[in-house]
Amino acid sequence: MKITLICPTFYTPNGDLFRPAKAMMPPLSTIFLAGLVPPHHQVSVIDEAVQTVDFDAPVDVVGLTSTSINIRRGYEIADEYRRRGVKVIMGGIHASMLPGEALAHVDAVVEGEAEDSWPEVLRDIEQGTLRQSYRHPKRDSLAGLPCPRYDLVAADRYVKPLASHRLRHGHAEER
Question: What's the CATH code of the domain at 137?
Fold first, then answer.
């Protein structure tokens, strides 16, 4: 499966999409989830604040993260992918608080922390048994999870990514 994980940008008060020349740091939720994708799948991440969503790129599954500030744009992205027949999964605080609202735009909602739900969502998609809602108890620790996929980050789009670290192969290495 080809999987794209997207952190939508948001609309500014004048109605433009927020697009800084560079952002401070990549959204961690998408690269953490990318680290949980089994190696037999292809995964990419998009931080829409500094990258463009290419709706024509081939993809089977789109995962979106949501906050209240970016939900309008998130729903627009979800609607466009669903119109194209792509499975869309949404998580994040907004979708977790209003899953019924989110389900009007997506195929499934991950409520709460996604670290335990995401592998189950992917298995269910593979088996054709995707449910509308996934929820696991809150984790006390991220210990034992795979390393975030820093190698998927467009590092040149960020102001000094992770300070003096070089991003390569899912690990931050000292220079």
Answer: 3.40.50.280
